[in-house]
Design goal:
Elements (H helix, E strand, L loop, with lengths): L16 H12 L6 E7 L5 H11 L5 E4 L11 H12 L4 E5 L7 H12 L7 E8 L13 E3 L5 H12 L5 H11 L3 H10 L2 H4 L12 H8 L8 H15 L5 E3 H11 L14 E4 L2 E4 L2 H10 L2 H17 L3 H10 L8 H12 L7 H13 L4 H17 L3 H12 L5 H18 L2 H15 L4 H18 L2 H8 L34 H6 L15 H5 L1 H4 L20 H5 L8 E4 L10 E4 L4 H14 L3 H14 L6 H13 L3 H18 L5 H14 L3 H17 L3 H18 L2 H18 L2 H17 L3 H12 L15 H10 L7 H13 L5 H12 L2 H18 L2 H17 L3 H18 L2 H13 L17 H11 L4 H8 L3 H15 L4 H23 L1
Parallel strand pairs: 1-4, 1-5, 2-3, 3-4
Antiparallel strand pairs: 6-8, 7-8, 9-10
Length: about 1000
């Protein structure tokens, strides 16, 4: 202990929404029936806190807390226990909380389990148990429903830290504490208590290690108890082996061989396993990662070092140099620098021929830094470790490493690399304005010694400016790169500053980048939700990688692409030449890949600047080179650049091919940070091609991987994609959910592009459900001139929707200015759908004598461009227009075509409009469609009728003997099928359906 901070008690549970919902459903169900639920999780995750929250939330009756007696027993039989519960309940519902039920003896656990299955005999009783998650669930509880507590998400852990420290923690200290706690709230609070106020504020150095043996032991408590010396050695060896493993599990053979080295006289075996370990095939792991850390930290130092030494011996004999060196370094008896071992660790970590994950390379670099005395070399190695952590999808680990690098004196090039990694981490998971400044600083620090890395940092800064919607900064940043050389074609741009004669939005004439990106996006959606061009340079795959040592000829060897990080360093994608590590200057740091600014970086910069300036003829050659280069290159960064460039050029097929290949390449390379971006490009390409179900599938997976990799900004873009998909094919609740999630991050981190896309999705959902007035109100804020206009690359994409909404809402006068802008974008020529959309807009606004020809012209343009959804929208509007002009035969044909198109691309809410129009013509479209009660399941129909009669969800659940969660789920489906938005609309529709059925019956009787 170095001191202690008094920590205020947290006044609320952070996160845990799914778990609280499960508990709430249990309590709500008490109105009709009994129920039981088991809460489990590793020590410190808040099992007791959740039970306390349940007890505090329960108001319907008494709360009974049961615990083991001195003999760890309880009533001897289930019958006795039920009698106790019956007496406690009386006539009211009863909540029974049993914390740490795993501590009860076996007969008591058996009685508790049998009582849980017969609770209905005791009245209305909810039994809520908690059991430890660091061991296998006791067989007595194995049949009961379980809800698991996982580590807190970064945002929730951050909020908890703010609550208990009043937000006074130094930023670097905050990052370190969050990384050390790994989402465990009890460990986070224990770490805060361990520090003095001065340490929390960054005024004094933190103790090392911060999470020491005493702190970890206090959190895990009795879970550390181990019955025998052999079991302790087994646990320690597994815990030691995990430190240099690529995941939470390790090879059983490795552990047993190390145990033989540790004690040659022993005959180690993995059977039976201690209950805190789990075995699967030939792998071993701890049930609880926290307990794994605690076992390692609390072991006797001599025994711990011996375990690492034994593992090193086995791994060296097995030809695994990197983990062997790590274990050898951990077997040292003191913290003093060991230059020779540090140099070997760094060299092997930098060797691209050594098979290892980014996470393991990062661990090796960090350990090499700890053993390095020379400050510049130490900073270089900490920075390399942070790069690897970012590539492994662990920005939470990268930030503390960068803070450690910052504490070391280092030359400008090393500080530039550290600043670049910091900027990239912020670009994925922080305010993009801060990322922009960090990346600009990185570019300036790298300019003299590492021009290629400076160029990639500048492109990343442009990416950040793009995401923030700052067009002038984006243009200015793209001007920072070196001018094209003599080999550049006449169509390429130089780095000239923006023309002073450009318009207010920074672009010549009437066209800005909105058009340039529209050609890239799905059905009017921009290509990658982050800047389609600069984004690639901003990715870790472009600007971050281990400084792998290269051997002569290795950079061009056939297998080089299998180690993508070797070619990703600093955004370099062309040939590489070895250069001495800036920190080590040819010594302990190993070697670093570096070279001239590669063609893809320059081509993308040139093409992006041309698009920003509205010069498609100059952008096409550069971006075309980027696409062409990917035909013979399987490196992830090259393929991702190609997907972006193809989207910008409107070549959707090429974008899908490059995106699919990029996804395969990133998965093969093990670069977790790259997968969310590859899925993002694929999702947009599929949307642009009109394949909405595939786009949604890619975005859903992208969202999961982005959250897992700590990339909240990327996750916000995936939420926007999902909102756009749901706006045509799903229920209103899905649109609202994705829009809310996207905007929550977008507003906090300044993601103007994601915010505009999400708002557009919400408006398009209104338009699809036949609410043009609402849609026009939303879209007007995005597209009309003013300070609230949407992102410069997106707002024009929403113009066709706005024109349609305004025309249908009787506000055509609002459209003239933006339609003129859109016509300029069509002339720009990057989007094959834009000409058809423009003709449709003119048809909506034209007098009757001209509208017919304009609709036909729009459909002809759609036939040339392809795309089921946009063509079906035009056919729907044309069919509506024909029906209102009393031309039913023609209208039926157009509406039938529209319905088929919507069904083909999964646009359910738009198909409902087409069906409604066909019914108005007296046609009977197959499938019934939205708006009729016949499309509901029996359960959905029952729920719809109860809600239409005015019942609340809880009242419906009580009547039907289901949970409120079930009612909520079915009610969302009812709203989607019927196309309604409120309970009032539902009541009117049910009333209308009942009245219609009654009229039909009366007619039949007559």
């Amino acid at each position: 202990m170095t001191g202690e901070t008094t920590v205020r008690t947290a006044v609320r549970i952070h996160g845990r929404s799914a778990q609280r919902e499960a508990v709430r459903a249990l309590l709500d169900g008490l109105r009709a029936r009994s129920g039981h639920l088991v809460v489990t999780g590793e020590p410190g995750l808040g099992r007791t806190a959740l039970l306390q929250w349940a007890a505090d939330s329960f108001r319907a009756g008494p709360v009974l807390r049961l615990g083991p007696g001195e003999d760890r027993g309880a009533p001897a039989t289930a019958g006795e226990l039920l009698t106790t519960l019956r007496k406690a309940a009386g006539e009211a519902p009863l909540l029974v909380c049993v914390d740490d039920a795993h501590l009860w003896d076996a007969p008591a656990r058996s009685a508790l389990s049998h009582a849980a299955e017969r609770l209905h005999t005791a009245g209305r009783v909810a039994l809520l148990l908690s059991v430890a998650g660091h061991r296998a669930v006791d067989p007595e509880f194995a049949r009961l429903p379980v809800v698991r507590l996982d580590p807190l998400a970064p945002s929730h852990a951050d909020a908890l830290l703010d609550e208990v420290t009043d937000g006074s923690t130094d930023p670097a200290v905050r990052e370190h504490l969050l990384a050390e706690a790994e989402g465990n709230p009890a460990l986070l609070l224990a770490l805060v208590r361990r520090l003095t106020p001065a340490e929390l504020r960054g005024l004094r150095p933190l103790p090392r290690p911060t999470a020491d043996a005493g702190t970890l032991a206090a959190v895990v408590g009795s879970a550390l108890t181990c019955p025998s010396a052999d079991a302790r050695d087994l646990l320690l060896t597994v815990a030691a082996a995990v430190r240099a493993a690529d995941g939470p599990d390790v090879d059983t053979r490795l552990v047993l061989d190390a145990l033989r080295h540790l004690d040659p006289a022993s005959a180690p075996t993995a059977n039976p396993l201690p209950d805190v370990l789990a075995g699967a095939g030939d792998r071993l792991r701890f049930h609880s990662p926290l307990l794994c850390r605690a076992v390692h930290a609390t072991a006797a130092p001599d025994r711990r070092r011996a375990a690492h030494r034994a593992l090193a011996d086995v791994l060296e004999a097995d030809g695994q140099p990197l983990p062997a060196l790590l274990h050898r370094s951990w077997s040292l008896s003191g913290p003093a620098p060991v230059a020779r071992l540090a140099d070997r660790l760094a060299a092997v970590a930098a060797d691209g021929t050594t098979p290892a994950s980014h996470g393991l390379r990062g661990t090796a670099y960090a350990r090499a830094a700890e053993l390095t005395a020379d400050a510049p070399v130490r900073a270089e190695r900490y920075t390399a470790a942070a790069e690897q952590a970012l590539l492994a999808g662990r920005p939470d680990r990268a930030r503390p490493l960068l803070a450690a690098a910052r504490d070391c004196a280092a030359p400008a090039v090393v500080r530039g690399r550290a600043e670049r990694v910091r900027g990239l981490a912020e670009l994925r998971d922080g305010p993009v304005g801060d990322a922009h400044q960090s990346l600009l600083l990185a570019a300036s620090l790298l300019a003299e010694d590492a021009p290629a890395e400076a160029a990639s940092a500048a492109l990343a800064a442009a990416d950040a400016a793009w995401a923030a919607g700052d067009l002038s900064s984006c243009l200015a940043t793209l001007s920072l790169g070196p001018a094209p050389g003599p080999r550049d074609a006449a169509g390429m741009l130089g780095p000239a500053a923006p023309d002073a004669a450009t318009g207010a939005d920074g672009l010549p004439g009437t066209v800005d980048l909105a058009g340039a990106v529209d050609g890239a996006g799905p059905g009017g959606v921009p290509a990658p939700t982050d800047p389609p061009g600069p984004r690639h340079a901003a990715d870790p795959r472009q600007a971050v990688a281990p400084r792998h040592a290269t051997v002569p000829g290795h950079a061009t060897a056939p297998g080089y692409a299998a180690v993508p990080s070797a070619v990703l360093a600093g955004g370099r994608t062309g040939g590489a030449t070895p250069r001495t590590d800036a920190g080590a200057r040819g010594g302990p740091g190993g070697t670093r890949v570096c070279g001239a600014v590669p063609d893809p970086v320059r081509d993308h910069r040139v093409g992006m600047r041309a698009l920003l300036e509205g010069r498609l003829d100059r952008a096409a050659p550069s971006l075309g080179q980027v696409v062409e280069r990917a035909r013979t290159d399987d490196r992830p960064e090259t393929l991702l650049r190609a997907a972006s460039a193809a989207l910008l050029l409107g070549n959707v097929d090429a974008a899908r091919r490059a995106g699919a290949r990029a996804l395969a390449a990133t998965r093969q390379s093990g670069s977790e940070a790259l997968v969310p971006q590859a899925l993002e490009y694929l999702a947009y390409a599929e949307l642009r091609a009109g394949r909405h179900p595939q786009a949604r599938a890619h975005a859903e997976e992208g969202l999961r991987t982005a959250l897992r990799a700590g990339q909240r900004n990327t996750a916000a873009h995936h939420q926007a994609v999902l909102a756009l998909a749901a706006s045509i094919e799903d229920e209103p609740a899905a649109v609202a959910r994705h829009v809310t999630a996207a905007l929550a991050t977008a507003r906090r981190h300044g993601l103007a592009q994601a915010a505009t896309l999400a708002e557009w999705a919400a408006a398009r959902a209104d338009l699809g459900r036949g609410r043009p007035q609402d849609a026009a109100d939303r879209l007007g804020l995005l597209v009309l001139p003013g300070p609230g206009r949407g992102h410069f690359a997106v707002w024009r994409l929403a113009v066709p929707c706005f024109v349609e909404a305004a025309a249908l809402a009787g506000r055509p006068e609002d459209t003239h200015e933006v339609l003129t802008d859109f016509a300029g974008w069509v002339a720009f020529g990057a989007d094959p759908q834009a000409a058809a959309q423009l003709a449709r807009c003119h048809a909506l606004l034209a007098p009757p004598d001209r509208a017919d020809d304009l609709y036909r012209r729009a459909l002809a343009r759609h036939d040339e461009a392809g795309g089921d959804f946009e063509r079906a929208r035009t056919a729907l509007l044309y069919g509506k227009w024909l029906r209102r002009r009393r031309r039913p035969r023609e209208a039926r044909g157009r509406l039938g075509t529209a319905l088929a198109g919507f069904d083909r691309c999964g646009a359910g809410v738009w198909a409902a409009q087409a069906r409604a129009e066909l019914r108005a013509l007296g046609a009977a479209p197959q499938g019934g469609g939205a708006g009729t009660l016949t499309g509901l399941t029996p359960q959905q129909l029952r729920i719809a009728r109860h809600v239409a009669e005015g019942a609340t969800n809880r009242e419906v659940a009580l009547t039907l003997a289901v949970s409120t969660r079930t009612v909520d789920y079915h009610l969302r489906k009812v709203f989607a099928v019927l196309g309604v938005r409120s309970r009032l609309e539902l009541a009117r529709m049910v009333e209308h359906a009942d009245r219609t059925r009654g009229d039909r019956r009366a007619g039949d009787r007559m």
